C-alpha cells in the first residue's frame, strides 16, 4: 500500500496560490521548497502573497524601494537601514544594509529562490578607503531563514569595519547569478 502511495501524484501544496503541478512523492519536497507560488511576506509592509507577485507588489506599493542592477555602487546610509531590491531572471533578491554611525556596516543578501542554483549566486563588494582595501563575497540567505538570526552570523553577512567605511559615501558591488565562490 505504501509503495502505491509513493507513485501517486498529488497537487502541489501551493495550489491555493496558483500552482497547477502534480508531483510524485520523490519530487514533491524539493518542488514545494522552490515553488514560484509559495507564500512570502513583504519585508516592508508584511503583505503576503506568492513569490511571483512580490516584485510587482514592491514596485507598485513601495516607491521608496531602491531598485538596483546586478552591478554598480551602493550608498552607505547615514543613520538608517536601506533595502536594495533586485530581480534577476524572475528570482527576487533583497540586500539589507544595516547601519548605525558607531557600528560596523552590515550587509546581507536575502534570496527568494526558485531553484537550488539561485542559492549559488554570489554578492561581492569592493571598498578602497585611505589605502585600505576590503573585498568580500557571500552567498544569499534563503527567505526561509529568520531575519533576526542573519546579522549575528558572520557567514550570512558581510561586516565592514568602521575604519574602512569612515568617510565613504558608497561602495562597488556585483551580483553574479549561479556562481560558486
From TrEMBL:
Sequence ranges assigned to domain SIAH-type in this UniProt record: 7-63
Metal-binding recorded as keyword: yes
GO biological process: proteasome-mediated ubiquitin-dependent protein catabolic process; protein ubiquitination
GO molecular function: ubiquitin conjugating enzyme binding; ubiquitin protein ligase activity; zinc ion binding
Alphabetical UniProt keywords: Metal-binding, Zinc, Zinc-finger
Organism annotation: Homalodisca liturata
GO cellular component: cytoplasm
InterPro entries tied to this protein: SINA-like_animal (IPR004162), Znf_RING/FYVE/PHD (IPR013083), Znf_SIAH (IPR013010)
Alphabetical list of SUPFAM superfamilies matching this protein: TRAF domain-like
Protein name: SIAH-type domain-containing protein
Any Pfam family hit: Sina_ZnF
UniProt entry tagged with the keyword Metal-binding: yes
